[in-house]
Specification:
Length: 261
């Protein structure tokens, strides 16, 4: 399969059937992981051959619904965790290869985002990190057409939780995702009606503006530079409430200077 090149496109129905059958929940976990490793390589290399890319794109919704999502469902045990990691890695390969169109994304958005959000809390750090990258990618790809205020409000709580993660690499990835998140807030966003959501976001982010890791502080500051534009007054009020608790007021002062000009 890896050496099939253009031929891969001509036998795509058979290839898809093999992967679907060999990654079913009844199959041996080692086989499923091996198949996901192979699938990930095929998906990463698909853009090299236009015919293969086109065929994989045709099957992308089925790959997500029938192969990836079922294997992201939580099951106890380290082996099951390894299968989830392999499955989310294959999804990441599919997304990065630009094989999922915006119309196709709409078909899988609800179920896929639910599984990705669940995977953000996985025991495996690698699974959490790749899930966060997929999360960010889907926000960017879906844009404001797929993610309105109501959809966004259901997502940010899980992102805030991950800012407490043990992995600083993941926490930086979460701040990147938050930057995308705030870029999707529409211009006509009802700031008064959604006041509670904004306050929860500002409070949660300000906690990490005092993180022991300066890289985290800087990353959170950059997020708040964007987030504060939605309602500068709310942010400044929260900064005034917590500034005295921070070990350094540097970033608090910079934000206050920015939004009280």
């Amino acid at each position: 399969l890896l050496r099939s090149g253009k031929t891969c496109a001509t036998i795509m129905p058979g290839i898809y059937s093999i992967f679907r059958d060999c990654t079913s929940k009844e199959k041996d976990p080692e086989l499923r992981m091996s198949m996901f490793t192979l699938l990930g390589r095929l998906l990463r290399e698909a853009p090299v051959t236009s015919d293969a890319a086109q065929q994989f794109s045709v099957y992308s919704v089925d790959i997500i619904k029938e192969i990836v999502i079922p294997n992201l469902e939580w099951r106890a045990g380290r082996t099951a965790g390894s299968v989830r990691c392999a499955a989310i890695s294959s999804l990441w390969a599919l997304l990065r290869s630009q094989l999922l169109s915006s119309d196709q994304l709409k078909q899988v958005q609800k179920d896929l985002m639910a599984q990705i959000v669940s995977s953000l809390d996985d025991d495996n750090c690698a699974t959490r990190l790749v899930s966060c990258n997929c999360f960010n990618f889907l926000l960017k790809a879906g844009g404001k057409d797929c993610f309105g205020p109501e959809e966004l409000h259901t997502l940010y709580v899980e992102l805030l939780k991950r800012l407490d993660d043990s992995s600083d690499e993941l926490r930086i990835a979460v701040t990147n995702t938050f930057s995308t998140f705030f870029s999707l807030i529409p211009e006509d966003y009802d700031r008064e009606f959604y006041k509670a959501h904004l306050q929860a976001l500002y409070r949660g982010l300000l906690i990490h503006l005092d993180d022991p890791n300066q890289a985290i502080q800087e990353a959170v500051y950059k997020v708040l530079e964007t987030a504060g534009k939605i309602h500068p007054q709310y942010l400044c009020e929260h900064i005034d409430n917590v500034k005295h608790k921070h070990r350094s007021s540097l970033y608090c002062d910079k934000l206050l200077a920015l939004f009280t000009q």
